[in-house]
Amino acid sequence: MHYDIIIIGMGLSGLMAAKTAVEMGKKVLIVGKGVGSLSLFSNTIDVLGSISNKMTLIDILSQWIKDHPKHPYAKVGLREMDQALSSFTSLFPPPYSFQTIGDGNWLIPTGVGTLRPTYLIPSTMVPGSSLKEGNGLIIGFKGFKDFYASWVAQQLKCRGFTLSLRDVFRQEITATALSRLIEKKGFRERMGREIRKHLKAETCVGLPALLGMNDPCSAKKDLEELIGAQVFEIPVLPPSIPGMRMFNRFKIWLIQRGVTFLLGYSVSKAILEKRRCEGIEVLHPPISTSYSSDRYILATGRFIGGGLKANEEKIFEPIFNLPVFQPKSREEWFQKSFLSDSPHPIHQAGILTDPSFRAVDEKGEWILENVWIAGSILSHHHWVDEKSREGIEITTGYMAAKQALKYEARGAGHAV
């Protein structure tokens, strides 16, 4: 039950930390009560919304770091950010690969008909980035109420159509159920023939991002041959099928390389002695099991994932009881206007760290010398406005593991 490193949290930051550690030849345990926000929000990889094709990624991030010296990117560094993003993309070889458009952001259609900037997108979404007025047919499904084709098409100045297929016999159908149907070749054939009947002069067809959990590229290719036009996925409301694809790819890859994967388990207690964590207890009622390591990475996310919690007085971190950087009073958590142009202060709350991602107090002193922090639980960022969530998770998960594995434990422990 002893590991070289234990990672708490199965979001993108925890998965990247596990990938980094196992590639360095370490014995890894990753534990999480769920799959994090990957299954909710992640369709693409946002690094920074302000990246444009007029400046290189390095130039923009370099300026961003100068302007935001406490931001997680400033602690990662430009070279390591590039290495982390390359490590992520290496996990997704063609045909289902994540692609960039030069040094800038793609502009891709969304499930509400807007265009949003993002840095890396799966190959199934690439054709949507070149969508022009009148050249796309947007397809929805009767009974699937999380995507309204006519509305999306109207905003994108294209045509929209809602299919009614006999396989969808219920009044409502979920994203997961529809994704499973599209994985069936017979359903795809009927679907493709029906879409072809409604195709006019359009050269591409947009579908909600539901082209199967396991082999979306084959589904895309089959439909293109049947329809006679390019097919692309459009991100929709949670759950995120592309996010589940990401998680499943990480899970299979990590287990194949010997990572111990405890999904559906929550950490009930951290065993602390002085300034060290000596172990964790993992609860699976009615059994509680202890695991130990020389190094721990906390990557439990923010409020949705339970990494941060709040009571009537303050925001707190529940596993290690680490201090949380936050407004002094609850009255200061939010701006006076909900739709204020300025971010709500509560969204920048999080764990303070030193440059190596080790948790510190407000004086900059270590709290636990063998615990590192990664992901959105970190302080001094506002990923919603920045459009930086996946970038923060990938790069800090990668870097926290690198820093943790520099640590040599002896006696009370010391850092090298």
Keywords:
alpha/beta, 29% helix, disordered C terminus, globular, 416 residues, Rossmann fold, 21 strands, single chain, 5-stranded parallel sheet, 4-stranded mixed sheet
CATH class type of the domain at 124-237: Alpha Beta
CATH topology of the domain at 124-237: Rossmann fold
| Arrangement of strands in the largest sheet | 12-3-2-16-21
Evaluate the radius of gyration.
23 Å
For the largest beta-sheet, the strand count, sense and barrel status come to:
5 strands, parallel
Please characterize this protein's 3D structure.
- Helices cover 29% and strands 21% of the residues.
- The chain has helices at residues 12-23, 57-67, 72-76, 78-90, 149-156, 175-182, 185-198, 216-227, 241-256, 383-386, 389-404, and strands at 2-3, 5-8, 28-32, 98-99, 106-109, 115-118, 121-122, 136-141, 159-163, 204-208, 230-234, 260-263, 266-273, 276-284, 287-293, 296-298, 309-310, 315-316, 324-325, 350-351, 371-373.
- α1 packs parallel to α11 (389-404).
- Among the domains are: 124-237, Rossmann fold, CATH 3.40.50; 302-387, no CATH class.
- The strands form 7 sheets. It has a 5-stranded parallel β-sheet, with helices on one face.
- It has 416 residues and is an alpha/beta fold.
- It contains 11 helices and 21 strands.
